[in-house]
Protein: tRNA-splicing endonuclease
Organism: Natronococcus occultus SP4
Amino acid sequence: MSLEGRFEDGVVRVGGDARQRYHDSRGYGYPLAGNEIALAPVEAAHLLYRGDLAAVVDGDERLDFRSLLAREPGPDFGVRFLVYADLRERGFYLSPAAEPWIEDPPETEFAVFPRGKGPDDGEIAYALQVLGERTDVAGRDLEDGVLAVVDEESEITYFEVSRRDPSGSSATGLPDGCSADLLADRVVVWEPPLELYERTFYGQPLEGREYDEPTLQCSLLEATYLAERGALGLDPAAVRERGREVEGERFDRRLRVYAELRERNIVPKTGYKFGADFRTYADVESVEDLGHSELLVRVHPADHVFEPRDIALDVRLAHGVRKTMVFALVAEDDIEWWSVERLTP
């Protein structure tokens, strides 16, 4: 016999043998007195959708699945239901990330439990946030967990979002006062030591691959970094100012990220071919034995607001070239690093 629920104080209360039938065996809701349980509206909607709950009574109204869905009880109810139903179909139990459903909940919308586990087992596989494809995401609001984006055709894409702490072991030694000329949008370094290119991977040889003693063409980012550390015989302020003239306010922001990566023993090179600011190499021993870059880095100010469509584009491209997409959010005093990758739950 199917049970009925009733709306009361924002939840759907179900009596009878609801605790054994829905909570203990299938992870829905949280227990009340006796065998009664309380369901979140999205949980009740899923039970109605499956035909496991006969109706939800609200005052004089008796709601079926269609009627409850049309009411949209709560913000973004439609997209939240789609994600809830999808994960249930994939074999996961999940609950609203709130007490009393679970103790010490994450600051997100849903807590998704490992397969075979439920809300009483104390384990969370994913802290899940849900949004539609037209809902922007502020960089300051990023959290470790999973982002589920529902597009206009109700398809769902899952992204794993996590803080990153980039590090590497690339060579770091620099020469002193190499002769160099500042051009319109780059710097030419004359007769540098071979190690500047072959070991620490600064610039590109003017001679291409055939050289005995390379003449290096350096980007303004590379040249500013080198000049500020005494490796080039140029005024660092003049090189930095040229970068600002060429690139505007982005230059200082990108320079901070470039310098931070170098200080972490990572080699950043242009990511232009991949639509990013940088591609990075963590463990460069020599240019001759250079492997594939590991990360694509896109630089944004700390108050940047992401459009889900842009996240999808960046992550798809990075995945297609077997790299991880990392966003560097630059604040006045620090840089936050966030990696975003496609996830199949």
About this structure: The longest helix spans residues 250-263. The mean pLDDT is 96. The CA atoms of residues 46 and 164 lie 36 Å apart. The domain at 3-132 is CATH 3.40.1170.20 (MutS, DNA mismatch repair protein, domain I).
